[in-house]
C-alpha cells in the first residue's frame, strides 16, 4: 500500500511575550487605539493601514504626512513591523465616543506617485532597477537588491514606477519589497525559506481561509503583437502541458514598443511562465509572529486540512488589539490587477514624444 511521505520538519512554537507600541508623529497612541491594522508585503500588494483612536479628550491633532510606526516583538518591543505616512484623517462620533479615523500607507505607495519614461537596450534587470530608483526616487536605497545579470530591451512610456518594477519582477521571476528604512529587497522568487515562521493547528493557526488553486486566471497561450516600422511583429508562446490540463486559455498583448521578434518572444515567454499554472492562494488568521518578511517561504502544517508544505507569503497584516495577524499566501492581488492590464492597453500604443522630460 503506497505511503505518503512529507519532508521532516518539527515546528517549535515561540514564547509569545508580546510587547508592542504605536506612535504617530512621535506621540505614543497605544493606549488610545480602538482598532488598528498594520500591513507589510511585496510591492505588488496594497499596503494601506487603518487606525481608529479614542479621541474623547481631543488630545490628538495630526497632519497628512505624519509618520506612523508600529513596533512589536516578543522581547523588548523595539522591532518595527510597520512604518508609513498618514494619507487621510477623519473625525467621527460613534456610540457617543469622539474618534479619530486615520488611514495611512507604507512607503511603497510612493512608487505610484512617479511616472517613468525610459528606454533600456541590452541592460541587465538589476541595472535597470537600480537606475530607475536612482533617477525617480529620493531617499530610497537598494543595498539588498540581489544581482540578476539577465539582459533585456524594455521601454516605459509614462508608466507608474510601481508598474515598471513589477514588470521587471515578472521578467526576472523575482520578488521585491521595500523595508522600513526605504531599502529595496529583490531576489529570486521562492528563494527565501524562513524556518522560524510556521503555521500549525496546535500553535498559531486560528482560522484558514480557502487555501487552494484557482485556474480562472490561467493563461497558457500568450500572443504578443508589436510594430516594426508599420510591419506587424507577432510571437505566440504556448505551454502544451498547461493546455492539456486546464484547456487552451489565450491572452493577447498589443504593444507598439515591441519592434522585433526577440522582444516579442521575451515578453510572451515571461507572461506565459507567470500565468500558465494556477496560483495557490488563500490566507490564514494566526497569532502574532515576529521575524516575518514578505516573500518568506514558510511551513503550513494542518493535518485537518491535509496541508503540509512551504508556501510563499506575499502580505501580512498585524491587527490590534486582537493580537492576531492575517497572512496571505501566493496571491498577487490589488495593485497588479488594477494597473497591469490597463496600463498595457492605454500606454502600450504610445511612442516617446517627450524623450527629454521637458515640463514646459
Features of this protein?
single chain; 360 residues; alpha+beta; 13-stranded mixed sheet; three-stranded mixed sheet; 5 helices; 16% helix; 46% strand
Summarize the structure.
The chain is an alpha+beta fold and 360 residues long.
How would you describe this structure to a colleague?
The chain has helices spanning 125-136, 161-172, 240-246, 261-275, 335-347, and strands at residues 19-24, 27-28, 33-41, 48-54, 67-73, 80-94, 97-106, 115-124, 141-145, 151-160, 174-178, 183-188, 193-200, 205-214, 221-228, 231-238, 250-254, 279-287, 297-302, 307-320, 324-329. Strand 1 (19-24) and strand 2 form a beta hairpin. It is built from five helices and 21 strands. By secondary structure, the protein is α+β, with helices and mostly antiparallel strands. It is globular and about 70 Å long. The N and C termini lie far apart (77 Å). Helix 1 (125-136) runs antiparallel to helix 2. Strands 1, 2, 3, 4, 5, 6, 7, 13, 14, 18, 19, 20 and 21 form a 13-stranded mixed β-sheet that branches. Strands 9-12-11 form a three-stranded mixed β-sheet, with helices on one face. It has a three-stranded mixed β-sheet with strand order 16-15-17.
**Structural shape:** globular
Mean pLDDT: 88
- Total beta strand runs: 21
Largest sheet: 13 strands, mixed
- Which class of secondary structure composition applies to the elements? alpha+beta
Beta-strand proportion: over 45%
- Helix content percent band: 10-25%
Q: What is the CA–CA distance across the termini?
A: 77 Å
Determine Rg (CA atoms, Å). Answer: 23 Å
What is the chain-wise order of helices and strands? EEEEEEEEHEEHEEEEEEHEHEEEEH
Oligomer: single chain
Low-confidence stretches: 331-350
**Contiguous helical run count:** 5
Amino acid at each position: 500500500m503506497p505511503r505518503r511521505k512529507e519532508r521532516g520538519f518539527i515546528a517549535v512554537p515561540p514564547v509569545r511575550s508580546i510587547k508592542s507600541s504605536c506612535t504617530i508623529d512621535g506621540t505614543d497612541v497605544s493606549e488610545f487605539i480602538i482598532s488598528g491594522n498594520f500591513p507589510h508585503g511585496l510591492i505588488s500588494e496594497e499596503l494601506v493601514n487603518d487606525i481608529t483612536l479614542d479621541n474623547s479628550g481631543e488630545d490628538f491633532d495630526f497632519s497628512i504626512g505624519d509618520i506612523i510606526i508600529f513596533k512589536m516583538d516578543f522581547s523588548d518591543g523595539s522591532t518595527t513591523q510597520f512604518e508609513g505616512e498618514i494619507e487621510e484623517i477623519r473625525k467621527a462620533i460613534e456610540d457617543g465616543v469622539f474618534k479619530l479615523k486615520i488611514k495611512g500607507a507604507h512607503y511603497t505607495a510612493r512608487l505610484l506617485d512617479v511616472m517613468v519614461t525610459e528606454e533600456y537596450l541590452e541592460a541587465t534587470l538589476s541595472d535597470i532597477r537600480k537606475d530607475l530608483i536612482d533617477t525617480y526616487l529620493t531617499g530610497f536605497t537598494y543595498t539588498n537588491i540581489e544581482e540578476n545579470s539577465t539582459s533585456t530591451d524594455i521601454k516605459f512610456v509614462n508608466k507608474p514606477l510601481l508598474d515598471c518594477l513589477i514588470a521587471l519582477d515578472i521578467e526576472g521571476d523575482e520578488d521585491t519589497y521595500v523595508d522600513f528604512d526605504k531599502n529595496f529587497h529583490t531576489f529570486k522568487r521562492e528563494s527565501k525559506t524562513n524556518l522560524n515562521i510556521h503555521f500549525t493547528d496546535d500553535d498559531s493557526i486560528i482560522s484558514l481561509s480557502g487555501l487552494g488553486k484557482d485556474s480562472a486566471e490561467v493563461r497558457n497561450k500568450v500572443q504578443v503583437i508589436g510594430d516594426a516600422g508599420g510591419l506587424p511583429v507577432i510571437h505566440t508562446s504556448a505551454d502544451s502541458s498547461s493546455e492539456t490540463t486546464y484547456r487552451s486559455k489565450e491572452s493577447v498583448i498589443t504593444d507598439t514598443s515591441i519592434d522585433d521578434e526577440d522582444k516579442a518572444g521575451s515578453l510572451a515567454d515571461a507572461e506565459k511562465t507567470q500565468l500558465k499554472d494556477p496560483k495557490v492562494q488563500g490566507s490564514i488568521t494566526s497569532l502574532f509572529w515576529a521575524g516575518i518578511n514578505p516573500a518568506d517561504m514558510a511551513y503550513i502544517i494542518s493535518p485537518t486540512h491535509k496541508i503540509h508544505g512551504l508556501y510563499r507569503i506575499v502580505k501580512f497584516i498585524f491587527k490590534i488589539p486582537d493580537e492576531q495577524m492575517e497572512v496571505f499566501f501566493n496571491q498577487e492581488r490589488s495593485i497588479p490587477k488594477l494597473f497591469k492590464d490597463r496600463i498595457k492597453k492605454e500606454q502600450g500604443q504610445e511612442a516617446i514624444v517627450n524623450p527629454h522630460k521637458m515640463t514646459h
